[in-house]
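Entry 12.
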Amino acid sequence: MIQICLYRKKTDVHLSAEFENILQWAADNLMTVNISKTKEIVFRRPSARHSLPVPLIGIEQVLSAKLIGVTFCSNLKFDDHVKNVLTICSQRCYLLRCLKGQGLPAKELNIVFCAMRLNE
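Predicted 3D structure (tokens):
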């Protein structure tokens, strides 16, 4: 389960209370939250001088997280996402070059290429 909770710094709602609401919603909808896979990411301006809030008990606080194929960073930049996409493209181009070098005909190369695109 993927759950996104936006929480403003200046609010009357406490983060732990909001997380309890998420857990209750999941239980009401016959779902469970796997705490070991749950991560917390704090989005803030890159120039923010404030310290990070204390993470929830048992929840790992991370600087970046991948959600539906997109890597989000706490500084709201997409450098990590672009680097990941370029790495995947480079690996797939290398695979196609190797297969072409081994003599795989163009028709079969196209099938491999289409299979890689459908796998995204």
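Annotation: The chain has three helices and four strands. The chain has a mean pLDDT of 81.
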